[in-house]
Each structure stands twice: as structure tokens, then as C-alpha cells.
Amino acid sequence: MSLESHAPENAIQEKAAQEKAIQCATELMETIPAVMQFIRTEMRGQNAALLSVPQFRVLAFLSRRPGSSLSEVAEHLGVTRATASAMTDRLVQRGFLSRIDDPQKRRQVMLDLTEIGSNQLQQSRGKTRDTIAALMQPLTEEQLLDMSTGLAILRKVFESLEPEPVS
User: Fold this and answer.
1) How far apart are CA 127 and CA 124, in angstroms?
2) Which CATH number applies to 9-157: 1.10.510.10, 1.10.10.10, 2.60.40.10, 3.30.565.10?
3) CA–CA separation, 13 vs 108, rounded Å?
4) I need a labelling partner for 88 at 20 to 30 A (CA). Which of 59, 69, 80, 160 fits?
5) How many other CB atoms are found less than 10 A from the CB of residue 126?
6) Nearest 5°: phi and psi at 99?
7) Is the CB of residue 73 less than 8 Å from the CB of residue 84?
8) 28 CB neighbour count, 10 Å cutoff
């Protein structure tokens, strides 16, 4: 058989794969907002008096990207530098963040979690994780394995798109 005789079959397989990818992307776009809304609501409930959701997001971002600049925090949150500056100032005053001048770049600071900030982040994540785990408890072992496998694949796809952490 020549390669030409496989061309229509390959085109059909490619089209089917593309349709499955589109279906999966659609499901992802419909599911993720509901999951994130649940997580935000949980975090807000736990941290109502302690942290706003954007402040929590700053802590989570800096746990993944220690030493980030104010501009990087602002970009992550989708806010202006002034808004990010006011938010991080409050977190520094409360002892959740430390701010040090960047030795390489004048007029730029590096932000890091303090031990207090790290502990608060871990406590909040733990409580939310436990709530989500309770929701998943009725699922079968096979369903949980399928979900874990799918999420690991999803993480791998999207982590490859993240910029490298500041060192």
C-alpha cells in the first residue's frame, strides 16, 4: 500500500482528534469557573476577617514565585501597580510578606512570604482541600483515579506555558 491510500484515513483520525480536543476544551471552560467559584467562596468564608481573596491570591502567587516584583504581582492579579502596591503594603504591615530592594535593579523590590504568611496560606489551603475531599468522598476509587490522572495531564499542559520563576 502506498502512503497516498492512508491519507484519507489519517485526515479522518486527525479530524476526530480535533473534535475531541474541542469538546474537552469546552468542558474545561465550563467546569473550571464553577470549581474556582467554589474555592473562592470557601476561602472567603475562612478568611473573611483575615484576608481578601485578592490578598490570598498574592500569597499563593508568591509561594510559587518567591522574589517576584510588584509588577509581576500586579500582572498576575490583573490590576494596576498602584493597586498591587497598596495590597502588598497591607500584607507587609500585617507580617505576611517581606519586601527587599532588588540588588540588581534600582527602584524595584522583591516580595516574599514570611513564615506567618506561609503558615496562613497553608492553613487556608488545608481547610479548603479538606472540604473538597469531603465532596469527593462518595466517588469510586476508579473515578478518583480518573480525575487525578486527568488533572495531572491538565497541569502538565498548562505548566509548560507558565513563565519561569524569578531566581
Assistant:
1) 5
2) 1.10.10.10
3) 52
4) 160
5) 11
6) -130, 125
7) yes
8) 12
For 70-88, the pLDDT digits (tens) are: 999 999 999 999 999 999 9
> Residue 108 gets which letter from DSSP?
-
How much is the pTM?
0.70
The residue among 102, 145, 117, 107 whose CA lies nearest residue 51 is 117
Among residues 93, 91, 99, the alpha carbon closest in space to that of 70 is found at 99
- 73's CB contacts (< 8 A; 6+ apart) are 58, 61, 62, 84, 87, 88, 111
User: How far out from the chain centre does Cα 147 lie?
Assistant: 17
96-118, pLDDT tens digit by residue? 999 987 677 767 889 999 999 99
Contact in structure between 62 and 111 (CB atoms under 8 Å): yes
